Amino acid sequence: MTTDHRALELIERLGNLLREEGRQGMSGALAPVHWQVLAYLSRCNRFSDHPVAVSEYLGLTKGTVSQSLKLLEARGLVARRPDPSDGRRVRLLLTASGLRAARAFPPAGAKAALAGLGARTQELEGLLHQLLQSLVRARGGRLFGACGACRHLVRAPSGLSCGLLDEPLTDHDLDRICREQEPSHPGAE
Amino acid sequence: MTTDHRALELIERLGNLLREEGRQGMSGALAPVHWQVLAYLSRCNRFSDHPVAVSEYLGLTKGTVSQSLKLLEARGLVARRPDPSDGRRVRLLLTASGLRAARAFPPAGAKAALAGLGARTQELEGLLHQLLQSLVRARGGRLFGACGACRHLVRAPSGLSCGLLDEPLTDHDLDRICREQEPSHPGAE
DNA sequence: TGTGATAGTAGCGAATCGATACTACCCGAT
DNA sequence: ATCGGGTAGTATCGATTCGCTACTATCACA
C-alpha cells in the first residue's frame, strides 16, 4: 500500500539531483529552469518555439516563463522575433552561445550514471514515457512528442506534411518535439 | 549520441510535473520543497531526523533547509527537539497535522498514473534505483536506503542491531531510510 | 587543552514563481 | 463591420527558495 509510491519518490529525488548538478555545473550563473528552457528550445520544432509552449512543457505559468526568457535574452542566449503569421506570437530562437549552453547539458555525472545502465536504458525510457503519458493525459496537458510518431503526420507522394497545421515537413522535423503532437498509436513516442 | 539523454529529459519533466501537481494540490500554501521535507521526515529513521540529513537527501544547503524548517515549524507541521546525545544536533519530528500532510502525498493524479503501469512498477523502481545509486556514488553523496538492506545490519540471537551506530533495531526500523545506509550487496535496495 | 571537523542559525541578495491585471491580436458570429 | 470570447504575451507585486558568507556551539581526538 505504501510501497507503490516508491517510484515517485525516486523520480522526485533524481529530479532534485539532476537539477542541483546543473546548478553547480560550469557557467553556474544559470538556474536549473534556464537549462531546461534552453534544452527545450534546442529540441522543439518551429511550431512550438513560443513562450506558451515552454510554459506548458515545463509546467510553469506564462508569467514565470516570460521573466525567465527576459533574463535569458539579456544574457544573449535567446532571441525573440515576431511571428509573421500571428501578431500575438513571439518566436524564440537560440543564439550561438545559447545553443552551445544547451549542448553542454546534461552534465557529465548524469550522463555517466545513465551509461551505467547499458542496454536497459531503452527499457527505462519506455516506462518513463508511459508514466509521463498517463500523467499528462490525466491533467489534460500536452505530450510534446515528435512529429514522426504523430497521428497528424501525412505521408503523401509529394512528401511529408502535418495534417493539422497543413505544413510540409522535412526529415529533420520528424525528430523535433511539437506542442500539437498526439501519439499515432498508444505507447508511441 | 543524442538519444541517450532521453531518459534524463523524461525524469526531469516528470519531476517538474510532480512538483507542480503538489503545488496546486489542496492546502496549497505549501511549496514543493516543503512536501518533500515532510515526506522525508515521515520515512526516515531516528538516526536521520536531523536538518543535515534533510539537506543531503534533498540536495540543498543547510542554510536553505534551516529556513524551510523554520517555516514548517511556524505552521505547526514540524517540531524541533534537542538531541540528548549530541548537543549540536536537533531532532525533527512531524506533528499530527504534519503527519497528515505527509500522508496526503503524492497527489491522486500521480498515484493513478503509476497504477497504470501495473506490475511493471517494480521494474521501473529497480531501474531508477540503480540510476540513483550510480549518480549518488559519483557525487560522493549518501544513498539513504533502508536498514534492512544495509551492510551494517547485525542479526544476532539477541535481536537486530546496527553495527555502525551500535543500536538495537526493531522490525519497524528496517523499512525506514537511514543516512548511514550502505547497500549490503550491489543493487540492493 | 586546543585544534579541527561538524551541526545549526542568521542575514543578504538574486532569482523563482503564482496571482492579478493589463495590452494586443486573432477569429468567428451576429 | 463590429462585437465578443479566446489566446499570447508582458508587467508588477509579494512570498518563498536558495546559495553564500559569517557566526556560534558542540564534539572528537590528539
Characterise this structure.
- The structure is a homodimer of 189-residue chains.
- Chain A is built from seven helices and five strands, in the order ααααββαααβββ.
- Chain A is mainly alpha-helical.
- In chain A, the strands form two sheets. Chain A has a three-stranded antiparallel sheet with strand order 3-4-5, with no helix packed on it. In chain A, strands 1-2 form a two-stranded antiparallel sheet.
- In chain A, α2 (32-41) crosses α5 and α3 packs across α4.
- At the A-B interface, α1, α6 and α7 of A face α1, α6 and α7 of B.
What is the compact description of this entry?
The first copy, chain A, has seven helices and five strands; from the N terminus they run ααααββαααβββ. Chain A has 189 residues and is mainly alpha-helical.
Characterize the main sheet of chain A: 3 strands, antiparallel
Instruction: Report the strand count of chain A.
Output: 5
**What is the end-to-end distance of chain A?**
31 Å
Name the assembly state.
homodimer
Instruction: Name the pair of protein chains with the most residues at their interface, and give those residue counts.
Output: A-B, 52 and 52 residues
Uncertain runs of chain A are none
Query: How helical, in percent, are the residues of chain A?
Result: 40-55%
What overall geometry of chain A do the principal axes of the alpha carbons give? globular
Helix and strand composition category of chain A:
mainly alpha
The strand order across the widest sheet of chain A is 3-4-5
Number of helices of chain A: 7
